[in-house]
Amino acid sequence: MRVKDKYINPFTDFGFKKLFGSEPNKDLLIDFLNELLKKETGRILDLTYLPPEQLGRHNDARKAIFDIYCENEHGEKFIVELQKAKQNYFKDRSIYYSTFPIQQQAEKGEWSFKLNAIYTIGILDFVFDEDKEDHDVFHHEVQLIDKSTQKVFYDKLTYIYLEMPKFKKKEDELETHFDKWLYIIRNLENLTNRPPKLQEKVFSKLFEQAEIANYTEQEYADYEESLKVYRDLKNVIDTAFEEGVAEGIEKGKVAGLAEGIEKGKAEGLAEGIEKGKAETIRLTALQLKQAGVAIDVIAKVMGLTVDELDNLP
User: Fold this and answer.
1) pTM, full prediction
2) Which of 15, 88, 207, 220 could cross-link 8 (Cys pair, CB 3.0–4.6 Å)?
3) What's the pLDDT tens digit per position in 241-281?
4) Interatomic CA distance for residues 51 and 67, integer angstroms
5) Which helix (H) or strand (E) holds 298?
6) Residue 141: helix, strand or coil by DSSP?
């Protein structure tokens, strides 16, 4: 086994599930979630992993496949998703995913409709297009808000997004335990040794689990394959989105100018962007399919159905 890096990349499927999605490392996920949520109702003491594949209520209904799905001792549900590359309608997908644990709480017969809290957490290896100019805010926590009072209307449905490329702190700038978690997630693959400032017990275990030299031949082969998929997927999708959106904007400008009026410009720009994005998704999915990437992986990342991918020309 010839090891090129010392630690695994946590943004790969293998790396993420190795560190956070396995029963022996459950304490790592618990510690991370406690630091992320800072729950007023108390710290999470235990978690139970639930099946990641969730079926709809009918045979022909669309299903969902979570990266990690678990619940704590109070019945609160946690969906933890790792998103490697930009995806059209990613926010829409995360809202859709949260409907599964909502519906699963329905009880037969007399039921008060009382729900346990649901947390959907996205650890993103990209920046939202609409947030590109904001270089400071990378931690987004979203709940239902009453716009007239600016107060939380419902506190049992929470969406948290971490735009990891925006986290720029260096080791000597780390102030909190949560800072250290983000630093590890952001930099683990590029570290050659455990940083002196990360001496907590939980990090001792994390670095031990992340060290590639400790893996069996099969684990190493699985990781290498996962790393290849991550790099290919991220490169193809990020490049395609940038080129597709740019092309869409240019087409929109031309269409708008041809109209000769402001309304035409606006409509042409919007139409051009949408057409550019749609064509980008189609071509990217086709490239990934031809490259041999698994259909279920393409469907998840691109927001398409398996049927749509099967019908690609």
Assistant:
1) 0.76
2) 15
3) 555 555 555 555 455 444 543 544 455 545 555 655 666 67
4) 10
5) helix 295-302
6) strand
